[in-house]
Amino acid sequence: MKSKESRVGLKGVLAAVLTPMDEDLNPNHRAFAAHCHRLLAAGCHGLSVFGTTGEANSLSLNERLAAIEALVESGVPVGKLLPGTGSCALTDTVRLSRAALEAGTTGALVLPPFYYKGVGDDGLFRFFAEVVERVGDDRLRLYLYHIPQMTGVDLGLPLISRLIDAYPGVVVGTKDSSGDRERITTLCREFPDFSVLAGTETLLLETLRGGGEGCISATVNVTSRLARRVYEAHAAEKVDEADALQERLTQLRASIEAYPVVPALKRLMAVLTADDEWRNIRPPLSGLDEKRAKDLLSGVPLADLF
Amino acid sequence: MKSKESRVGLKGVLAAVLTPMDEDLNPNHRAFAAHCHRLLAAGCHGLSVFGTTGEANSLSLNERLAAIEALVESGVPVGKLLPGTGSCALTDTVRLSRAALEAGTTGALVLPPFYYKGVGDDGLFRFFAEVVERVGDDRLRLYLYHIPQMTGVDLGLPLISRLIDAYPGVVVGTKDSSGDRERITTLCREFPDFSVLAGTETLLLETLRGGGEGCISATVNVTSRLARRVYEAHAAEKVDEADALQERLTQLRASIEAYPVVPALKRLMAVLTADDEWRNIRPPLSGLDEKRAKDLLSGVPLADLF
After folding, report:
1. Which of A84, A155, A192, B46 has CB 3.0 to 4.6 Å from B14, enough for a Cys bridge?
2. Could you tell me the pTM of the whole model?
3. Which pLDDT score, from 0 to 100, does residue A1 have?
4. B15 to each of A110, B12, B37, B44, B262, how far by Cα in Å?
């Protein structure tokens, strides 16, 4: 089993937080803060802002810096934030990671540089090493963000091992959005001091049982209440109850993940908050068309959300 | 045939210009300007700075803005510049495109937003439309940058057609780095007022004969002299001479393209200029190892370069 005591940082149920936008498609700081407070109230242990779900790569550096500042000012507890700070550009990743540290957050979730393909482990290692060296702050807790379906970049186990060895206590965990159960199990087994968070709540219970920390998921924007119940049943060692709740949670997620996930979640938020501003989305993403929105809204048990 | 008179902008042999970097991996403005002047002297009709070869996506917005400003100040003729202004983020693409216009450049080479995959033509159309609308300047000449092996995004002909129809005189051309001969021929035939530039000088003569404008290529950083001779032989309707020169050019490129192209070109530049600073490269790219560098340098006819 893992020596959990040696780990730092977040565990449990984390939302990959949506970024609400105004009519001009600028982040709406007020709505963003309100959503973060709502998610914590609904049971999230933590908030991973500015990831794929948060449309972070559709925002400029300054938009990301301003949004994190506004969020902290709104009183969201910084110890619960795991902001995405990745970018194709080394200098942007360094700047965002420093800003996250300065804001007092628990860690930084860092994408591999995703423009160049097939660069090999040496280039990827050098990128992450430069990030750590240039940030130059031993408070840094770097989580590797593995999402090959978007990045086209594979963070293989040899690379992860090399990074952990080079920066122990700094390269501390991963969000694994590969959806690959076996990979997650292997990560938990091979790297006992490393925090593994699955990219979907479908794998929440399995990841916890395998020794991982939990999940960071897009759909947790609306499933956090039920996801938290799974976590608590597991923590209380109520095996059957945890299984039954996980089954419900998996079904709930399945009713959403058949649709493009960020558009579907923004559409659900518009209904749940009675605020159509939630439907705004930055291109290249597009809102659901009316036919699909109708199917979504008739298929999801709205009363089970949040 | 194409009604070439209606076209604006650059044609002929364009280099996808390398970005020289100092020891701290910051763009070296002085060396950058010197290289641009050298390329023009060696026969380039134009310079596409800040593309894939220029490691543009490894630079921050401010680094790109500062470098273009320094370049213009150095006296490089702005009418010969086709800067890459693409980014995943709408707001960065708008900002960079505006800056390019303000500097007086001939056009802007724009990547599709490349983080999100499978977003569909509506989302991509909306992205480019927002760029055009937000730049809000009818001097804009937008070239679509098609390089699916890096972006994971396909700019299909229906999308291109839609953009040309929506923004005639603004969406004016494309750099096509797909390496797909048939696609390039089809683009030239289907869109007679649209400027088609191949992403490799291997297709220079074929593209010119098919009605395209020329090429924008990484390897033109070192093959510009010979590439220009192909262009001139074609312009003078010296068919056999053009064929023979293209064959030599294709061979010359082949001796380089077997290697990772940006590292190989930077290594060649270090030798050609006797300045090892040229070997600096920003991660995730890495310099060639000594074994491969030796193979490269022994296989390329150095006297044929520039």
Report:
1. B46
2. 0.96
3. 40
4. 33, 10, 12, 7, 13
